[in-house]
Amino acid sequence: MADGRSRLVVLAGPTAVGKGTVAAEVRERHPDVWISVSATTRPPRPGEEHGVHYWFVSDAEFDRMIEADDLLEWAVVHKAARYGTPRGPVDQALAAGRPAMLEIDLQGARQVRRTMPDALFVFLKPPSWEELVRRLVGRGTETEAERTRRLETAKDELAAEREFDVTIVNHEVPVAAAELVALMTVPTRAS
Questions:
Q1: Do 167 and 122 contact (CB within 8 A), yes or no?
Q2: For residue 154, is it left (φ>0), alpha (ψ between -120 and 50) or beta?
């Protein structure tokens, strides 16, 4: 990490662009970066662990979190499950001065922009539409109906690129992760 003030970076982009994979690369190669773990009402995919990949919660628990204002942002994603960012850990990481990142969907990024406008908003973009479709089909975690719904959502998500401060094209995960980490500090100005 370069010397400087840490900053909250919000990473968003269309489904299957590799947000989770890029975040995992950052987590592995840059343990000093704090990465938020989202809460979700969807069931775990194979290999996902509670508290590591997501906080898998019931609809009732998610409702309780909304009511208690425990979520920085939340949304219904792909017309199915709800996802949200627990507020407390974000506040703690920023108060500690750690470089911090949220990996969230477009709806969530829009909510965070309203509440934390000083964050840096990064759009992760696929090299092409065809590559996005290949990645979604290739992971094999969704039914045909889910893939169709996610691809419909992806068209709208791709159109939102201009709402972001920076775009990173995810050609190769290590390169995209390095570009992302480079954005996480603000150089300090000499007095």
A1: yes
A2: alpha
Closest CA to 77 of 115, 46, 108, 33: 108
Total of domains in the chain: 1
Predicted confidence at residue 115, as pLDDT, reads 86
DSSP output for the chain: --SSEE-EEEEE-STTSSHHHHHHHHHHH-TTSEE---EESSPPPTT--BTTTBEE--HHHHHHHHHTT-EEEEEEETTTEEEEEEHHHHHHHHHTT--EEEE--HHHHHHHHHH-TTSEEEEEE-S-HHHHHHHHHHH--S-HHHHHHHHHHHHHHHHTGGGSSEEEE-SSHHHHHHHHHHTSEEPPPP-
pTM of the prediction?
Answer: 0.83
- pLDDT tens per residue, range 49-70: 999 889 999 999 999 999 999 9
Diameter over CA atoms, the chain? 58
Is residue 190 one of the residues assigned to a domain?
A: no
pLDDT in tens, 154-174: 999 999 999 999 999 999 999
Residue 191 in any domain: the answer is: no
Domain span at residue 136? 5-185
Domain holding 127: CATH number? 3.40.50.300
Q: From the centroid of its chain, how far is CA 132?
A: 17
